[in-house]
Amino acid sequence: MSRLLSLADWLNTAPAGTIAYTANSSVSKSDLESRILHWINVLPAKRGQRWALYHQDSAEFLAMLLALWQLGCTACVPGDDRPATRERLRLQVQGFVADFLDDVVHSKQGSAADNDGARIAWQTLSKDFPALEIYTSGSTGEPKAIQKTVAQLDSELMALEALWPTDHEAVVISTATHQHFYGLIFRLLWPLARGQRFETEQWQYTEDLFSRGLRYPSFALVSTPSHLGRFNTAVAWAEVADRCCSVLSSAAPLKQKDSVQVAQLLQAPVREIYGSSETGAIAWRQQSNSGDEPWQALPGVQLSQTDNALLLVTADQLAGNAFEMSDQVEFIAEGLFHLRGRVDRIVKVEGKRVSLTEVERIVQQSNLVEQAKALTLNRKRVEVALVIELTEAGEQLLSLSGKRKLQQQLKQHLQNFFEPVLLPRRWRFVQQMPYNAQGKLPMDNLQAMFISQEVKWPDLTSQVMTGNCAELVCQIPANLIYFDGHFAGNPILPGIVQVHWAEHYGRQLLSLVGRFDRLEVVKFQQVIFPESTINLTLEYQPEKGKLNFRFYSDKGVHSSGRICFS
Amino acid sequence: MSNLQLEIKQMIIEILDLEDIEPDEIIDDEPLFVDGLGLDSIDALEIGLALQKRYGIKLKADSEDTREHFASVNALAVLIESQRTS
Q1: Virtual CA dihedral for A524, A526, A532, A535, nearest 10 degrees?
Q2: Which of A232, A403, A427 lies nearest to residue B52, judging by beta carbons?
């Protein structure tokens, strides 16, 4: 027996009373209904249209969503409201519900009493009504649209309810956004269908979770590995632990130690959900101290694998169709499996899915970029990194303004398309991609460019200063970052690095001031190889704002020139 | 640049594993997030944890308040100073 209400008829069947909590107040079903009526009145929408929907507040989002459904419209829910996202949606939808916000919401506050007393006859949605369209990174690099009918949503919720039928009284507190499918299901639609109250705000810090938890006799936490992996252990969790019923985590696998730690701090089961936007939730696990816990199929979900070990899913929530995941798996028993990594170029960065092909495609739109290769690095966090061959314009900007400026400019471009956590955090600008002898570009070669400790300077074995002159002896380390891809198999020290070093030591040793203006009489006569010993002579002319430099060795002069400062 | 500001910048670079930036390139009153240094929400969590570990600072459970404290190096310095003296 299930207490779950169908989304098709929720408005008619849900009992009156509180459905949600804002920061300091609550939202009742009739508050929600009057907001729905408001949106029905102001939206110039017609049956069968598609409307984009974005709003930070979960209750208002819900009112907009249910209003669109009452109007017979599909709600297109983007993961963010970045300019490029809006631009892309603009071509596909009738309008944006979020756009009306500022001018409409505030001026309409007095109209809440329209439906006092009288029961409103809400439309019952048909099971095959296309209620939602959500977006995810497709393997082509273009975002892929996924439609969900009311029946699909209902059956996903039923699978969850069959597995975890208790704790209806716990208030849902969340760090996840409802704009993503996981958050939409777990912090909004499932609570709604089971009559569980939810908070309308998305919280960021664990300190927030603590103080929110203290407000309720019982609560459930819906979160992600990004947050659960950064739990502040200094908070007095014991004070709220007995109020916490369960913790849900999804978007990416949670590290075992994080899972165990949170379970201990909150004295509650930490349930991990595995799934995708395409399939919804399909499996779950609860980790413990004992080894690598396998994933287990949700009720009603049938799992098998393809010949190349990809997970194959069949379930009611997929309308009976089979869906092939891009994750390779290893089955240890019927419905029990371990994940073994993805086969495509789609990666998860802090729980957010992104196509590396898409990152490359977008950054290559810049006139500074000739070719780009994107990869992920597992450092303190999982991050996107880029190896880039620059165009002539790019090289110019790099030599005039430096790596940081160049990065900032490229990041600014990427910002229009990607959420902040997906932006590259590490960049390598190379003359040529590190192809191997077979002409291939192995991932290891790209990874290697980011592994080594950043070596940017020569080892100084001697430095002698006389007045405005300095004489340095430099040992050129072979693992200098500037040898990366410059050139593959035949590394030489780039000329621009020599100029940069001259300037750097000029500033450090000769109290040189002013901004880099231009170069004069620069000559690069002989290349500098790794592991060689090179002398550098610097001579500063403060009155002219000029610095003469000369790199030389027993082979003669390697380079010389003058840097002018303004 | 005061010592505390420098300390904060070094902390930011270290805990966030930032590359291609020196402490003196971070400007005291420039925004740390989005514009300016361009940090993201995960970085904010890391800074919150580091403040707790290094300076024993407890964030108040008010995201608005926290957002203000995290606005810039100067704002962080004010936060640390205020907890030292109180």
Answers
A1: -60
A2: A232
C-alpha A42/C-alpha A104 separation (Å) is 8
Please write the tens of the pLDDT for every residue from A460-506: 777 777 889 999 988 898 778 888 778 877 889 999 999 999 998 88
Contacts of A419 in chain B (CB under 8 A): 40
Task: Give the number of other Cβ atoms within 10 Å of residue A292's Cβ.
Answer: 9
Interface probe for B, chosen from A230, A240, A427 (most Cβ of B below 10 Å), is A230
Expressed as residue numbers, the domain containing A65 is: 7-298+312-342
Q: Is CATH 1.10.1200.10 the classification given to domain B3-85? A: yes
The CB density around residue B1, as the number of other CB atoms within 10 Å, is 12
Domain ranges in chain B?
3-85
- The CA distance from B76 to B81, in Å, is 9
| ipTM confidence | 0.83
Does A2 reside within a domain? no
- Asked if B45's CB is within 8 angstroms of A227's CB, the reply is yes
Distance in angstroms (rounded) separating the CA atoms of residues A494 and A502:
13
Facing A208 at nearest CB: one of B17, B40, B63: B63
Tell whether B22 is within 8 A of chain A (Cβ). no
Residue finishing a domain among A434, A451, A468: A451
CA distances from A157 to A4, A154, A288, A559 (A): 8, 5, 26, 70
Answer whether residue A427 is part of any domain. Answer: yes
Contact B34 A212 (CB under 8 A): no
Q: Are A337 and A358 found together in one domain?
A: no
Has residue A306 been placed in a domain? no
Instruction: Please check whether residues A227 and A168 belong to one and the same domain.
Output: yes
Is 50 exceeded by the pLDDT of residue A278?
Answer: yes
Structure tokens at A281: 């939730």
A392 and A508 in a common domain: no
Q: What pLDDT, on a 0 to 100 scale, did the predictor assign at position A454? A: 66
Q: Which chain B residues touch A456 with a CB distance below 8 Å?
A: none
Give a yes or no: residue A303 inside a domain.
no
Which residue of chain B comes nearest to A418, CA vs CA?
B40
Co-location of A153 and A264 in the same domain: yes
- Give the number of beta-carbon pairs within 8 Å between A and B: 72
- B27 in contact with A, Cβ within 8 Å: no
Give the CATH number of the domain where residue A399 resides: 3.30.300.30
Q: Where are the alpha helices (DSSP H) in B1-86?
A: 3-15, 41-55, 63-69, 73-85
